[in-house]
């Protein structure tokens, strides 16, 4: 691996960590608020009344985003295959917990001001993207059990893109707030959905720009960077010469 490709990998990883930072910090602030016995307000009353789902959601989503960013560093996977496997075993339950609690909160928490109807555009988007995230994690897990590295990565990239939607939603909201002030119900729904859509579109571009898999010879290694536990499988990737862009992070 060249120095330029290694630097590019770290830039991608740093970018994902920065994108994760805002929702992680906001979530930590919410947990601290709940732990301190803060006074109830219209913004936090539903969390104070039933705190467990939001606490589980914040902790699991934070771990999913932060650990997931490191999983996309190809050099780190090669040098630390055991770390990759252990982190993956943490990511799967964290991702499912984040998606599951997100669905629960959408269905059962009282609606905050500005969210619109429970089954309006934003509510349906939350239910849809949350369901797809959970399904993608399950499919990724089943793929790695079959030693299908290519499909494992593709489904995990999709799940991670949806899980990181909260970070991109900050980017879609900030310009609007700076120019036009707080968005109304319809505009807020559009800006929230845009965050997920942007991530999913980028994820699909990344997946499709990966080299096509080729059939491996009997007994050939599929992807040595995953370690001995993932050595054999039905497909292998063509060799690559480094990490030139986001399309090769998975």
From TrEMBL:
What keywords sit in the KW lines?
Membrane, Transmembrane, Transmembrane helix
Comp. bias (Basic and acidic residues): 222-243
Disordered as annotated region, ranges: 214-250
Transmembrane feature ranges: 50-70, 90-111, 123-144, 156-177, 189-207
Q: Which domain of life is it from?
A: Bacteria
For whether the record's keyword set contains Metal-binding, the answer is no
Name used for this protein in its record: Membrane protein
**Organism of this sequence:** Actinoplanes auranticolor
């Amino acid at each position: 691996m060249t120095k330029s490709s290694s630097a590019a990998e770290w830039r991608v990883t740093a970018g994902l960590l920065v994108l994760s930072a805002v929702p992680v910090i906001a979530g930590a602030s919410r947990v601290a608020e709940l732990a301190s016995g803060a006074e109830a307000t219209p913004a936090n009353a539903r969390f104070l009344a039933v705190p467990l789902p939001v606490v589980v959601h914040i902790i699991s989503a934070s771990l999913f985003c932060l650990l997931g960013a490191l999983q996309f560093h190809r050099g780190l996977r090669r040098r630390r295959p055991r770390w990759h496997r252990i982190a993956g075993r943490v990511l799967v339950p964290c991702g499912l917990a984040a998606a599951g609690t997100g669905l629960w909160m959408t269905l059962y928490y009282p609606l905050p001001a500005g969210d619109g109807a429970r089954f309006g555009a934003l509510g349906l988007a939350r239910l849809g993207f949350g369901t797809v995230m959970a399904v993608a994690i399950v499919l990724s897990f089943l793929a790695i059990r079959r030693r299908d590295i290519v499909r494992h990565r593709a489904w995990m990239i999709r799940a991670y893109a949806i899980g990181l939607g909260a970070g991109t939603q900050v980017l879609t909201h900030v310009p609007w707030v700076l120019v036009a002030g707080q968005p109304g119900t319809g505009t807020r729904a559009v800006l929230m959905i845009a965050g997920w859509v942007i991530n999913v579109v980028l994820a699909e571009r990344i997946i499709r720009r990966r080299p096509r898999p080729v059939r491996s010879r009997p007994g050939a290694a599929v992807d040595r960077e995953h370690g001995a536990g993932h050595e054999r499988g039905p497909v292998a990737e063509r060799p690559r010469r480094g990490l030139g862009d986001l399309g090769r992070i998975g």
